[in-house]
Design a protein that fits this description.
This protein is mainly β. It has a single domain, classed as Lipovitellin-phosvitin complex, beta-sheet shell regions (Roll). The chain contains 4 helices and 15 strands.
Length: 293
């Protein structure tokens, strides 16, 4: 009888393991729900970009801020978020000379509307108070369209309807970005990115708060680079093409349907031109997002 009982318990745990392996997880935000209308969530973001220009020296752009998001429901068939950036800080240097960004500080506490397209990315942005904050339009565009395109609805890429069927532990899936527009710095004109991405669900852990999934991604990246900088009171433009890799690690709250944290790092290199100077350099980019309770 004892052996039968032990065997039954063993079979139960084996079946439980296989059930867990067969379970599928859908990575779609649950924030965009009418039940969440006017509810708020908050994230902390940190960004750093660095590279070297031989004739000038080391260049660093660093920024951090809190983003408070309130779901406003749908307008004209698209989701709308009211987003407010606060606690904005910058630490930007060109050859040991600090660069000030007045428009960046002016955004502090100024809300804007993010119109989210059906793919989950930002279609367009509008200041909530157009009369008072219309002059910040370009600053909003640059702040919310950083180098790593953010997907508010499908954070791990929405390629087709199969994504909504869910992913099993250990499974990989592919994504692709074609000519995505972004801004290297607040003052820069648009740059463009092409990428091929691979995601993998590597871990699901049971916590007191519920199941937490870990997803990693790696990408190959091609960039058309446009950067404007102010060096010693003079505007300088850098143009060129770069290629390299991106690696990211994500923590996802399965029950709440939201990102807990993400860190994305890129290493790029390419040939660039500034005025009559052509040079080769490497660019590194680091971006971190954390959910604030």
């Amino acid at each position: 009888m004892k052996n039968i009982l032990i065997g039954s318990v063993f079979i139960f745990f084996i079946s439980l393991v296989f059930c867990d392996e067969d379970e599928k997880y859908i990575f779609k935000s649950k924030f965009f729900n009418e039940d969440n209308k006017n509810k708020e969530i908050k994230y902390k973001t940190y960004r750093e970009l660095s590279f070297t220009i031989p004739s000038i020296g080391y260049i660093q752009y660093t920024s951090s801020f809190n983003e408070k998001m309130k779901y406003m429901g749908k307008r004209d068939g698209v989701h709308v978020i009211e987003s407010t950036l606060t606690d904005l800080e910058t630490n930007n240097y060109v050859a040991n000379i600090e660069i000030m960004e007045p428009y960046w500080q002016a955004m502090n506490g100024a809300p804007c509307y993010l119109y989210i397209d059906r793919y989950g990315t930002v279609d367009h942005i509008e200041p909530v108070d157009k009369k008072e904050h219309e002059y910040l339009q370009e600053a909003f565009d640059a702040a919310f369209n950083g180098m790593f395109e953010k997907n508010y609805l499908y954070p791990f890429y929405c390629c087709d309807s199969t994504m909504l069927l869910g992913q099993k532990l250990g499974e990989s899936w592919m994504g692709k970005t074609d000519s995505s527009m972004f801004y290297f710095t607040m003052d820069s004109p648009p740059s463009f990115a092409w990428s091929e991405d691979t995601y993998k669900l590597i871990k699901v852990k049971d916590k007191k708060s519920g199941k937490i999934a870990t997803v990693i991604n790696s990408s190959t990246l091609l960039l058309e680079v446009n950067i404007k900088m102010n060096i010693m009171g003079e505007e300088r433009f850098i143009k060129g093409r770069a290629e390299g890799t991106i690696n990211g690690k994500w923590k996802w709250d399965v029950g709440a349907g939201r990102i807990i944290s993400v860190r994305i790092k890129s290493n790029l290199k390419g040939e660039f031109k500034m005025d009559d100077e052509t040079f080769f350099t490497k660019l590194t980019r680091d971006e971190i997002h954390k959910f604030l309770k």
